[in-house]
Design a protein that fits this description.
The protein has helices spanning about 60-70, 70-75, 85-90, 100-115, 160-175, 180-205, 210-220, 220-240, 240-250, and strands spanning about 30, 35, 45-50, 55-60, 90, 95-100, 120-125, 135-140, 140-145, 180, 250-254. About 45% of the residues lie in helices and about 15% in strands.
């Protein structure tokens, strides 16, 4: 629920200021009527010379560029794309034409490259041609807003309050306990979410310089990175804050 990172899928806002609730590459995305679709054989080979960093913290200028060209940033989540594939994003089926020219796409890619958000990462060679096409990818799997722009407490906003209210119903129903202090529960959830965000950010700050973390984040897809980050943060809150856990047990008890 954190809105501190932007894997831009607009993450619905990648939200630029959301966690882009873009959890991509779910296994079910490749299913059709209960059957796994077989991937078609590729008629090309990709030769890669670079790969994304695990995480990059964005400046305000980079954030603005990412928001302006969020459709391209989103399309490159976990993918290396050619210029033609980026151009295909702007095909309008109803008009049977493209909303943007290939020259405009080149300008967009140049702006993103100059901002340090994408990079040339290799080339693609079709099996039936000697010609090659440049490949582009994101410079990082996850783009994170600068910490000075992450002060907003989403759990105090309308959506956050709605989630806490629903939790106050779901938890007693599941655990067969009584919620004795709704106001106290709301306060505890605020503390929990704040600590959750803090541990998640701590993990991401260590990623660029920690070989163990960066190695996992390079190999994992975006869905795995998000899920692993959430699990680490949740377990971290439990291990570091025994008092908070005890307070939850007091408020939620039989």
């Amino acid at each position: 629920m954190s809105n501190r990172y932007i894997n831009i899928t607009v993450h619905d806002n990648v939200k630029l200021k959301t966690n882009i609730e873009d959890r991509v590459n779910y296994p079910q995305d490749r299913c059709n009527m209960g059957h796994i679709e077989k991937e078609k054989p590729k008629d090309y080979d990709d030769f890669l010379t670079a790969r994304p960093e695990p995480i990059i913290f964005l400046s305000e200028e980079q954030e603005a560029v990412a928001k302006e060209y969020s459709d391209i940033i989103k399309a490159m989540i976990g993918k290396n794309l050619t210029v033609k594939e980026v151009h295909a994003l702007y095909f309008n089926p109803s008009k049977e034409t493209y909303d943007k020219t290939i020259k405009t796409v080149y300008r967009h890619l140049e702006a993103l490259e100059n901002a340090g958000l994408i990079m040339e990462c290799g080339h693609r060679k079709p099996h039936d041609s000697r010609l090659t096409e440049k490949l582009f990818c994101r410079t990082a799997n996850i783009f994170v807003l600068g910490e000075d722009r992450q002060k907003e407490k989403w759990w105090e906003k309308e959506k956050g309050e709605r989630i806490i209210k629903r939790l106050s119903v779901l938890l007693p129903e599941l655990l067969e306990v009584e919620l004795k202090d709704p106001a106290g529960f709301k306060k505890l959830m605020g503390q929990f979410f704040e600590q959750l965000d803090g541990i998640r950010m701590e993990l991401w700050r260590k990623a660029p310089e920690n070989e163990g973390i960066s190695g996992i984040f390079r190999e994992a897809d975006l869905w795995e990175i998000n899920y692993l980050s959430d699990l680490v943060a949740n377990i971290g809150v439990l291990l570091r804050n025994a008092k908070l856990c005890d307070e939850f047990k007091t408020i939620l008890s039989k």
